[in-house]
Structure formats: C-alpha cells, structure tokens
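[SOLVED] Need 3D model of a two-part complex

Original post:
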Amino acid sequence: MASEAKRPIGLFRNLAAKIAAIPMILTALVVFLGGTLWTVTYSFTNSKLLPRADFVGFDQYERLWATERWQVSIENLMIYGLCSLVFSFIIGFVLAALMDQKIRFENTFRTIILYPFALSFIVTGLVWQWLLNPDLGIQNVIRSLGFTNFDFNPLYNPDIVIYGVLIAGLWQGTGLVMVLMLAGLRGIDGDIWKAARVDGIPMWKTYLFIVIPMMRPVFITTLVIIASGIVRLYDLIVAQTSGGPGISSEVPAKYVYDYMFQGQNLGQGFAASTMMLLAVAIVIIPWAMLEFGGKKRV
Amino acid sequence: MARNVTPQRKAINTVIAWAAGLLIFFPILWTILTSFKTEAQAISSPPVFLFFDWTLENYAVVQERSNYMRFLWNSVIIAGGSTVLGVLIAIPAAWSMAFVPSRRTKDILMWMLSTKMLPAVGVLYPIYLICIELGILDSRAALVVVLMLINLPIIVWMLYTYFKEIPGEILEAARMDGASLKAEILYVLTPMAVPGIASTMLLNFILAWNEAFWTLNLTAAKAAPLTAFIASYSSPEGLFYAKLSAASTMAIAPILILGWFSQKQLVRGLTFGAVK
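Solution:
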C-alpha cells in the first residue's frame, strides 16, 4: 500500500480524489438519506394535509396493513415483479442467443428492439391500453380474421389485469435485456464453443453449464436494472389502467402517491413508502453483503 | 464469439429474429399510422392497415389545443440540463474512483447504485416541500436538479466503467510532464473518454426525457415537458384515439429520430457496465 516512490504526490492525489468525490457523495447523502429519514420519521405521525410532528406510534402501519387496497397493491407488485424477472430473462436470453449466431442487418434489428425502452412508460401504457382494448385491439383483429370465439381481454378482468400490465412492461423492457445479454454472449471466448463441440457436449448443455455461469456479471447488471424498474412501477399503471378496474391493478407506489397528494393523508403515505423501503432493504442488503462483502480488498 | 454458422441456419435465425423484431415494433408503427387516420378510421372494424385517407388533421388539432413547441422546449431544457449538470459532477467523482481507488471505492459505488433501487416515492414529499419552500415548484430549474440527482448514480457508474479502461499510465505521463490536476482531467482524460461520455450522456438524456414520475408531480403548467403533454391527452381524450396517437407520435418522434442516428452510442450506452 505504501510502496509508492513519490509519496507527497500520492498523498495529494488521495486528498484531491476525496474532494473530487465529495459533490456526488454529498448530493446522494443529503437527498436520499436525508429525504428517506425524514419520511420514515413522519410515518410515525398522524400528519394529514401538512406534516405535523404529532407522534402516534405504529398507528399508521396498523391501518396500512388493514387496508385492502394496500394488500392488493403488494400482491400485484409481487406477481408483476416475479413474472417480469423470469420472463424478461428467458425471452431476452433466447433472443440474444439467436442473434449471437449472426443474423442479417443486426444493427438495425438491435435498434428496433431497443426502441420500446426509449419510450416513456406513459406512452407505453397508452399504446397498450389501446392494443388490449377488446373492441379496438388484438381481440378485435383476431376476431375479424374469423376466430370469433377468441377471447383476450385482460384489462377489464380484475383477476388478470396485472398480467395485461405485465405484457406492456415486458414489451418495454425485454429489448434492453436482450442487448445486455448479447453483449455478455459476445464477450465469451469463441474457443469455449469449439472446445465444447470437440468434447461432444450438446448445445443446450453448453449454454446452461458453461456460458450462463460465465455471464454472471451481465446477469447482475440486468438484475439491478429490472429490479429498480419493478420498484418504480407507477407511470405504467397510471397510463394504462389507473389502478382499475376498481382497485385490482393498484401498486404500492400509486398507493403512496394517492394518499400523499389526493387523500391528504400524509402519515399513511409515509408509512406505506417506509414499508416499500423496508422491503427493498430486506432484499438488497443480504445480496449486497454476499456480492461485495467478501471481496472488499480486491 | 463468432461461431461458424451454416447459411441456412443464418437465414432461419434472421427470419425468427426479424419476426420478433416486427412484433416488437408493431405497436409503435400502429400508433404512428393511426395518427394519420380520421377518428372513424382509427376505430373501424376490421382495422385498416395502410389503405386509408392519410390526413394531417389530428396534428393540426393537437397543435391548436396545446402548444407542442413549449412542451418540447421544456423537455429539451430539462433533459439536456440535467444530463450536462450530472456529467459535470460525475466526471471528478468517476475519475477519483477509477484512478485513485481506495479500500472503500467498491463500497461507495455499490452503496450509491443501491439508491437507484430505493422507491422514489420515499423522497417525493421531502423534495416537494423543498421545492415549495424555495418557490421553485413548477420551474425547469427544479426539474433539472431533481432529475440530475435521480440519474447521478447511473452516470457515475457508467463513467467509472469507461474510465477504468483507460490506462492510468497515460495520466501519469501527463503528470510527469507537469500537467496540473485540472489539466489532467480536462485535457487528457476527458478527450480520451469522449465516446464513453457521449454514450453516457445519450442514455441519461433519454432517461430524463422519459421520466414521468417526477415531471408529472413537480410541474403544473409552466415547466411541463412532453411526458405531461401526452399524459394530458390520456384522460379527457380517452376516446379520440387518432388524436391521442398524434400526440404520442409527437412526443416520441424526437427520441426515435435521435436513437436512429446514434445507434452505436445508444447500444453502447444501454449496455453500460456489461460490456467488458
């Protein structure tokens, strides 16, 4: 560590480096940590229209978990999150594996498949609200082709409305997953494929036991991106279903927002956002420890 | 990477991939086509695909009802401003993490990125209050700062991965020749990292452009960007699909065009840390 010949410069550089990183750390610290702590604190108050430091203990949390809308929100987010993780990984990987074997006009294809990601969730939600509309969209088109019994109407069925949202979410996100996976596949040494073929290992086994484990870093990046998208799920719901029919496609972020700004029940909104925070922390912290804790000194 | 693929195999792959590509592109195409239809044709059954009377009427109506240019200009200022500001703050930070790593660099990076996973609603109210206190609610300045903060972790992370690929010896050589720290970053590091910085800026421009949660909540009329423009057409215009499509097309056109002309940077930007 201290084997540098030009010590003074090294020391100066270290200081400069610390100073250079300060603006970033400060902003992250003040905004995220400060804002979050503030929210957590006021979640123990019975603030209504304006934040008031009138502490009521866990009242807001009891009320929160007794609310049906909150329970529906949590369930929806879990279904959406799990499905979008599984499906976007599978679809993205299969498409990437296809593309890795060289196709024509690859760059154009890649751009087109990335386009949905470059759209705002608001646009995505509106477009899919329309495509899934039974009288105007997919159902109508297929029925007009002669399949009059065809039934595909997720947005107006409370039981499956969240899967209608999932389709739009997957449409937007899968292209990005594919491009990430493709980048990972391209990074794999061509000799590995040759070696596997010489050894007579079938293609699917090569993918499953050799290539996928080698792509770990890419998988982690992808996981981070998808997961942060899941927690943020809000715009898509607002544009596509507004939480309906009834409350059947509500999500936690919308619950928080509605209680803060429309329900004029700040305390309840704060308690809900604290629960979201807690849920994220429960997932992230053990994972981060596993991933980064072990090799701190590398 | 390159495996030998027979021509037939390549043709089959191309067909499958392009079928998937068209399927993915179809909703965008459909929206654009619908924007040129009349309202009656937009909801006609069976739907007409290409053979309809093309009209620009929807665009005229949308333009008349809301001033597109104002929303567009707000979007440009907000997305551009937050990206430039973010990069200015991120370059020194990424420099320090890439070239003067300490024992905690990895931790800081990880910790910082994890803020990206926190639910944004957790800080919504505090930021809303700050904006009210400072009297900057519904101003472009507020959104520039907020969106910069939201995307800063990604900017730093991306720049860090690009900077790490630049050999530290080059910077050292510049220092040996008597370059000051400022000169080192400004005239040696930055020019070498231009492709990386360009990709970072492009991606963050798009992210900021599309950000709806914050823009919808912190603006009313004055500073509203295109996300608000399109959202305003969703509720009262619910049944006018041709006009909604025209508004959508107007909102997404700048990004589609920008993306088309910067494919390489876009793909590099979107694959950030993943490509090694």
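Edit: Residues 68-99 of chain B form the longest helix (32 residues).
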